[in-house]
Design goal:
Oligomer: heterodimer
Largest sheet of chain B: 7 strands, antiparallel
Strand order of the largest sheet of chain B: 3-4-5-6-7-8-9
Largest interface: A-B, 55 and 57 residues
Shape of chain B: elongated
Number of domains of chain A: 2
Distance between the termini of chain B: 48 Å
Radius of gyration of chain A: 21 Å
Distance between the termini of chain A: 58 Å
Largest sheet of chain A: 7 strands, antiparallel
Structural class of chain A: mainly beta
Helix content of chain A: under 10%
Helix content of chain B: under 10%
Strand content of chain A: over 45%
Order of helices and strands of chain A: EEEEEEEEEEEE
Structural class of chain B: mainly beta
Chain lengths: 140, 125
Amino acid sequence: MASISISPIIYPQTNPSLNYLPFNKNGVFKDSLLLQPDNNTIAVLNPDGNDNGLFVNNATNSYFFGDYQGYQSTNCIILRSNGNADLFQNNLNIYINQLDGGISIFNDLITSSTAGLLATYLKLSVNGVKYKIALLNDTI
Amino acid sequence: MASISITSLNTKTNPTSLQFPVNIGGQFVDSVLYTKNDQSAVYSTFPGLTGGTKGINLDSTNQVYKLGDFNNLQNNTAIVLDDMNSKILLTGLNIVTTGGSHPPTSKHLNITIQGTQYCIQLLQY
């Protein structure tokens, strides 16, 4: 692991891009994938420059984790805490410890029955055992 | 809090110990991320907040990973992954509702899936 060496011969520099958090690569500050565009926001940027993976905004009370931009799987958790909170807004794709048979909720396994008051179920797997939860219409 | 200063070159790191730096205007200043005890935990803090941290909290020592308003500083909407105890905690002041079109004594978990709102009836534990 190289350490940061600040030499009087080689003028020390920050990482090249503004608002990026730096990291040490072979003794030189490089841009990490973390961006702080303002004092209320922290985000992870992909190599293409678009944020995805993690987004935290204290001003809007928005917290995104996962593929919330929908570049691939759209597996994500979105928390909005603006007084009208919605857990799992947008896509309901949560994969937690999936390989070990933990809890997983699959967006593509939300199903509808053909008739009856309980029209929709949320399918999930808990420790490898599949269950479904009846979803009621929210008319409150 | 001690700062690390390289005075001979008039070049400084960010001013606050344990705070991650960010490049603002070509200078390292404190970011909103900091580590509490070197390498085992990462927190975010924001200007004007009092009473604790908010945003993200990654604690590998205790194996607890938090996202959102986990200290209930404002609206208390958060998800907490407690890996040591194998628990997932969801919080939110308005995710449980009673009454409406449902029996007034029952409680429901509000959930939004792809823009459509649903309720899940909660049974006594």
